[in-house]
Write a structure and sequence with these properties.
Elements: H1 2-22, H2 34-46, H3 49-53, H4 71-74, E1 81-85, H5 92-102, E2 106-111, H6 114-119, H7 131-142, E3 146-150, H8 156-170, E4 175-178, H9 193-221, E5 224-229, H10 242-262, E6 267-274, H11 288-292, H12 306-317, E7 328-331
Parallel strand pairs: 1-2, 1-4, 2-3, 4-5, 5-6, 6-7
Helix pairs in contact: 5-7, 5-12, 8-9, 9-10
The structure holds nicotinamide-adenine-dinucleotide.
């Protein structure tokens, strides 16, 4: 106890010496009361500190109107305009579209043209994506405005055109879900230059481009939600998934850092990291990396439904998550513990 006290006294002495060397208001140990800290903050503001850094306290941002609402009211997305890249995907893409539209949002289902997806050699599902078909089905099911938009959401020019079209046709842009991914799996040592570039562009650079372009809409309006789909593979190393996992970890770090940078502008950037998702109508691969990956690792001893992951995406898009930014939510069912 005596040693701890000595330590505290020592740190106080250093603080006082440093403070008095740099501040107009001198301090002694006895003067370090609450009043002292308030005066110190005032001194900082008077010197223009708040304006200089842009991080000063803003009471008007506190969502006082949320206090008397229920959580289900806060989850309501009626009137919000959402863009889901890779939204026609049979797994998480469609699950996000349905969860967001189910809470009342108007949604743009963004995906590749079917012929482009088929020619990419990267198509994950037996049938090519059908952005218009998925949109029509969701619109009928949930009664909101759900539109199909075709294009490449992982290239700068492609996503630029896509966001403009979404904004025009939906009449606004509040929520971006960066779900689309292209990647390269296999032995790192034998990957070609093109395979490496494909993983860097398709898993990391693409969602970063989409985020950067989304800010052109969200920053001027002072609001927006960006949700990046990362992966448990970014936390747990696995042979064959080195490029995928490393790029997803990069996207997680980007999410956390940007969340801090643009939070003060009213834009919240968060992410979810699914483990291994598979739905009942989708045949799980039995061999290879994606089939073996979850088996030895989950705590819940099963695949997750994409809809379970999309629950968190919808939550992060809503006012129920108003104090969250720069957060990565682990949705892996215990895979990364
Ligand atoms: N499947 C899993 O178990 C799993 C696990 C962890 C993370 N994830 C991540 O979840 C996200 C969704 O994966 P999923 O397996 O559910 O796929 P999904 O069913 O959502 O399908 C992805 C869709 O993205 C589309 N797409 C691909 N490239 C595109 C491009 N350039 N432009 C527009 N659309 C494009 C595809 O056509 C497809 O329709 C991805 O980011 C993935 O890395 C998936």
């Amino acid at each position: 106890m005596n040693e701890i006290q000595t330590c505290i006294d020592f740190l106080k002495a250093i603080f006082i010496a440093l403070h008095n060397a740099t501040h107009a208001m001198p301090v002694t140990e006895g003067s370090m009361t609450e009043d002292f800290y308030l005066k110190l903050l005032q001194e900082y503001v008077d010197q223009g500190g708040g304006e200089r850094t842009g991080i000063w306290w803003d009471e008007s941002r506190i969502p006082l109107s949320s206090i008397d609402k229920s959580v289900s009211q806060l989850l309501d997305l009626t009137g919000k305009k959402a863009v889901v890249t890779g939204g026609a995907g049979a797994n998480l893409g469609q699950a996000c579209v349905n969860r967001l539209a189910g809470l009342g949002a108007d949604v743009a289902v963004v995906d590749l043209k079917p012929a482009v997806a088929a020619a990419s050699g990267q198509q994950r599902w037996a049938t090519p994506p059908d952005a218009h078909g998925v949109a029509a089905k969701a619109a009928k099911r949930w009664g909101t405005n759900v539109i199909g938009v075709e294009g490449n959401a992982l290239e700068w020019d492609g996503i630029d055109a896509i966001l403009r079209e979404c904004n025009d046709r939906l009449g606004g842009f509040d929520i971006l879900v960066n779900n689309a991914t292209m990647t390269s799996v296999g032995d790192f040592a034998s990957m070609s230059h093109d395979q490496l570039d494909n993983a860097i562009r398709g898993t990391l650079a693409g969602p970063i481009y989409a985020t950067r372009l989304a800010l052109e809409y969200m920053l001027p309006q002072g609001s927006g939600r960006i949700i990046n789909i990362c992966s448990a593979a970014g936390e747990t190393a696995m042979p064959g998934l080195t490029m995928y996992g490393a790029m997803k970890q990069g996207l997680s770090t980007f999410t956390r850092f940007l969340g801090k940078e643009v939070g003060r502008a009213g834009v919240h950037v968060n992410g979810v990291a699914p483990g291994s998702m598979w739905g009942p109508d989708r045949t799980p691969p039995v061999d290879g990396i994606s089939g073996l990956y979850p088996r030895s690792r989950t705590a819940i001893q099963r695949y997750e439904l994409p809809e379970e992951v999309a629950n968190m995406v919808a939550f992060l898009a809503s006012d129920a998550a108003s104090a969250m930014t720069g957060v990565m939510v682990d949705m892996s069912g215990g895979q990364t513990i």
